[in-house]
Amino acid sequence: MNAPERIPMPDIQSLADLRNQPINRVGVKGLRYPVRLCMADGSEQHTVAAINMYVGLPAEVKGTHMSRFVEVLEGNELALDFANVQGMMLTMLARLGAVRGQIEFAFPCFIRKAAPVSGVQSLLDHEVILRASADPFGGFSLEVEVRVAATSLCPCSKEISEYGAHNQRSHITIAATLCGEISIEELVRIAEEEASCEVYGLLKRPDEKFVTERAYDNPKFVEDLVRDVSARLNSEPRVARYTVSAENFESIHNHSAYALITRDKSDGASL
Predict the structure, then answer these.
(1) CA 66 to the chain's CA centroid
(2) pLDDT in tens, 32-85
(3) Which has the closest alpha carbon to 96: 138, 141, 66, 136?
């Protein structure tokens, strides 16, 4: 019995569009895939990322090929270092016939920490986003964003109180566009070291005493947090531009305190 004759299927996406409206971003959003992180100590960490992939679409093209984004993911081992992400971007542009694109990976990263006195080990999670962009002139950029939990203690509260001072948990967020290799762990450490005190997954009583007194001896407003982190990033040659923000979840108010600094180091200006 002869096989049935295959009839070519229409490719509607490849038809011309006459509305003369290019699209800045078109693609897929919210894909969840397992990925591997290349850590600073040479180890690998397995996690799951929410992935967004976009390309620019010329005005004359009706639609993009959505299935090809997933094919790009399936064709990669998804080890998230600078070279692999850049290679994935080039593959995506070639498969989609595009000259402009963006890929975003959002995932939890776990870093093992030792408590400051007892030395007990525990994992602490940090929210990380990698944003890769390619432009029509062959330029490629990679931004690493980390959100780090920390402790802040209010200088004003300490100054006016006869004993004690109110403190709160803070989220310090660094979004750094790189011009050299810098690890997730290094950005996390910058945020932790500039807080009133770090936070830990596991503490014993001697550790609790230490972190309580450490914060009391190192009070910082939300403005201090972003200025001190900004100063560290200003002196970091592997960072081309950055945004640093801090949100203090106030313990004596039903609102947060917030501050943000953005700087492009190529022109020396804050935005």
Answers:
(1) 25
(2) 999 999 888 888 999 999 999 999 999 888 888 899 999 998 876 678 888 889
(3) 66
Exposed / middle / buried, residue 54 (Cβ in 10 Å: 0-12, 13-18, 19+):
buried
Contact between 225 and 215 under an 8 Å Cβ cutoff? The reply is: no
Helix (H) or strand (E) holding 270: strand 269-270
Cβ-contact 158, 165 below 8 angstroms:
yes
| CA–CA gap between residue 136 and residue 57 (Å, rounded) | 12
Q: What is the CATH number of domain 20-270?
A: 3.10.270.10
> String of b and e for 67-86 (b: at least 16 CB within 10 Å)?
ebbeebbeebebebebebbb
**Residue range 152-168: average pLDDT?**
93
Where in the chain are the domains? 20-270
pTM here is 0.90
Query: Looking at residue 3, what DSSP letter applies?
Result: P
Q: Would you call 183 helix, strand, or coil by DSSP?
A: coil
CA-nearest of 162, 161, 131 to 145 is 131
With tokens 């890929």, the residue in question is: 103
Helices (H) and strands (E) in the chain, counts: 6, 11
State pLDDT tens for residues 217-245: 999 999 999 999 999 999 999 999 999 99
**48 sits in which H/E element:** strand 44-57
β pairing state of 197-198 and 256-264: unpaired
Cα–Cα dist 50/99, whole Å: 24
